[in-house]
Prior knowledge:
Elements: H1 3-8, H2 16-19, H3 21-25, E1 28-33, E2 37-42, E3 51-55, H4 67-88, E4 92-96, E5 106-112, H5 134-146
Antiparallel strand pairs: 1-2, 2-3, 3-5, 4-5
Helix pairs in contact: 4-5
Amino acid sequence: MTLEEKQAMSPRTACGYCMGGELLDAFGIKICDLSVSTLILFREQSHPGRCIVAYKDHVSEITDISDEERNAFFADVNRAAKAIHAAFEPDKLNYGAYGDTGCHLHMHLVPKYKDGYEWGGVFAMNPGQTFLSDAAYVDMIAKIKANL
């Protein structure tokens, strides 16, 4: 698909979080559905255990949802964070909410390790350095699910 064809698509149909399939597979692997979100393992694993919590509906801003939905979204983020802490024991978990291009409410959960990549600095969105085997992704997902 050309860039022009992608740009002509509606935001929802061009969204990997909404559409799944190849659009999601390009950057992540669905772990499971949470209360109002989807938990996704980020394919690039320079930060072991890095995940994304994506809101269930295609909204751009936290202000686009009700207080109740916002509270449920942050409860999902918290649940995923606890699972990542239990599964991978990072020294710190950073949280990033971006969406300049995707415009779908989501939060990056980025484990940081004192002796690891980028400790003490801002993480690169997609450094493209560490990709795993299918078996390693399966193992990582099992560790997260066991702690949800």
